[in-house]
Amino acid sequence: MPTCIETEFTRTLFTTPSFDFDSHSEELKALVDELYCFRDNFWIDYKKKQTKPEITSQLQNVDFEQIKSQCLKLKQENILNRMLVLTTPPKKRNLSVKRELDFSNNQYSYSFDPTLSQKQKSFYHYIRGKLFNIFGDYNVNAELDLSKSIKYDPLNTDAWNSMGEVYWKKGDLEHAKLCFEGGLREKKTVEGLLNLAMILRVINKGKVELYKGQIEKSLTLSKEAVEMNIEEKNSWYGLGSSYLKKFFDLTRNSKDLMQALTAYNKAIHHYLENYESCFKDLEHSLELDPGGNSRYLLNSISNYLQNFYRGYLKSKEINYDNFKSTLNKITKKNFLNFKNLKKINDLDLGINVDSFISLKLIKEFSEPVNVHRSFICVDLLNSLNTICLTVYDVKYEALTVGDEMLIGNPNLLHINFNFNNKLFNFKSIRADIPLYVSVNEKKLIENDILFTTIGIEIRAE
C-alpha cells in the first residue's frame, strides 16, 4: 500500500465550498459513516466467504485484523483525498501545485477555504478528526483536528464526544471526562451519557468516597440514556455495567448484582422475542427499582403485543381471495427456481435451514419500543394463511405494506403465555438476517441494511 497520495490540482476547476456546503458536508458525513460501518461489520463479508468450500482453506491462515487495518487505511486515505478536493481554496489561490499527503509519518495538513464560516470549518475539522480516530490507537492528528473543531464551534457536541474518545486512547482520562461533560452541556445525547457513565466507572478508584459518588452518577447517567432510547442495546449494557461495578467495587449487595443481570437480560430477551421472560425480568426490575423506567417499558411492550395479537386474529377473519388471481403468477414468475419454497403450515418450529417462504405484507404494527419492524402477512402460496412477521436491521424506506418478501432460513416462533390474565398464543416468523431477505424480487443491498452492533470488551478497570 502506498504511504502517500499525490493530488494534482491543475486540472480541476474548484468552486468555493461555502457556496455548496450542504451537499459537501452530507457527502463527507455519509462517507465517514460508511467507513465506521465497514470497520464495525468487517467480519460479515469474510464470514460469508468462509461458508464457501472452495476458499475456506485459503482463509485458514489469514490475519484478518491486518487485512482490516489495510482496508481501513486505504479507505481513510481516499476520503481524506476527497476532502482535499472539496475544501481547499479556489483555484485562484495558487493551487497549480502538487500536494503530498504523507500518512506514514502522520503528516497531513492544508488550509481550508478561508471563506468558510466558523461552523463550517468546525464541521470539516470534526470530520477529519473522526477519520483519524478510526483506529484503536491514539492519533495526534485526530487530537489536533478535533481541538480546532471545538475552537471554531464550542457547541459542536459530536466533536466534544470524539475528543473525549481521543483523550481516552491517549490515557488522559481526566481530560476525556471534561470533554464528555462539555458535550453534554451543549446537548444531551445517548452517546454522551454513556461515554461519561463509562469513564466515571474507571477513574479515581483509589478515592473511596469520590469513587462511590461517581458510581451513583454513572447509574443515573445510564438510566437517562435508557429513558432517551429504550430500544438502544448499548444503553442497557451501560446500565448493567454500572450495577456490576457497584456490586464488585462497593456494596457486594446481591440486589445490585440482580439489577445488573436484569438490565442485560431485558435487552437480550426483548431482542430474541422471549416475551414471557422479558416480562418476568421487567417485573423483577420494578420490584428492585420502582423509580426506574421498567413500568413504562413493561406497559409499552404489553400494549404493542396486544395490538399485534389483535391484528393477527382479525387478519384470519378476512378473505384474501382477491389475491388468488395474481398469486399463481407471482409464484411462477418469482419463485420458480426455489425448490424448497414452503407454505406456512409446512414450516417447523425454529430455523428452517435451506427453506424459503414467500409473504405479502398487509399491515404494520411497529412501535418505537421495539428494535424490529412488525407486520401481518399473507402466505403467497396459500392466501388462506396469515402470520405475524418481525424484521430486523432493515431501513424504514426499504420495506412497506404491500411489498412481497422472500425469506430464506425462516425462523418460526411460537408465542404462547399469559400475562395479566391476557393470553398470547400465535406463531411468528423472525427475519433477523437481511442477507436472507429479498423484497419485490430484489435482494437487499448494503444501503437498505441497518448494521446494529454492540461491543463488549472485558478489561481490568
Automatic annotation (TrEMBL):
All residue ranges annotated as the Tetratricopeptide repeat protein 5 OB fold domain in the record: 341-447
Domain of life of the organism encoding this protein: Eukaryota
SUPFAM superfamilies: TPR-like
Transmembrane segments: none
Coiled coil: none
Pfam families in UniProt: TPR_8, TTC5_OB
Protein name: Tetratricopeptide repeat protein 5
Species for this entry: Clydaea vesicula
